[in-house]
Amino acid sequence: MEATVTDNEERHRFELRLGERLAGHIDYTRSDGVVSLNHAEVASELRNLGYGETMVKGALDDVRERGAKMRPLCPFVAAYVKRHPEVHDLVAD
User: Fold this and answer.
1) Quick one: which of 65, 77, 89, 93 could link to 72 by a disulfide (CB 3.0–4.6 Å)?
2) In a 3-state reduction of DSSP, which class is residue 92?
3) How far apart are CA 81 and CA 43, in angstroms?
4) What is the C-alpha separation between 58 and 64, in angstroms, rounded?
5) String of DSSP letters for 10-59
6) pLDDT tens digits along 60-76
7) Interval 29-53: pLDDT, tens
């Protein structure tokens, strides 16, 4: 099943969907061109299957496309950023 990540601006979160199913989300706040990624969650039965990384990658792709910066406040997101130097330029000062 195809995984997609979309920005649900009304609910202030990036959403991971598997088909029509909401499989996870990353809560965020936006201020002055910086997206603070506060909390990530994937459905318990889908953990450790790579969906969390897919969700973070999709969220960071969106941040990059908008020309924004981000703060990885969530430990899962911070760990992803640490392992992926190609996204270090997105981290806000």
Assistant:
1) 77
2) coil
3) 21
4) 10
5) TTTEEEEEETTEEEEEEEEEEETTEEEEEEEEE-GGGTTTTHHHHHHHHH
6) 999 999 999 999 999 99
7) 999 999 999 999 999 999 999 999 9
Q: Please give the single-letter amino acid code of residue 30.
A: R
Backbone phi, then psi, for 31, in 5-degree steps?
-160, 125
For domain 3-90, give the fold: Aminopeptidase (3.40.630)
**Residue type, position 28, single letter:** Y
Predicted pLDDT of residue 31: 96
Tokens of 21: 């199913």
- What tens digit of pLDDT does each residue of 14-25 get? 999 999 999 999
- Domain residue ranges in the chain: 3-90
Single-letter residue type at 81: V
Chain position carrying tokens 């002055």: 32
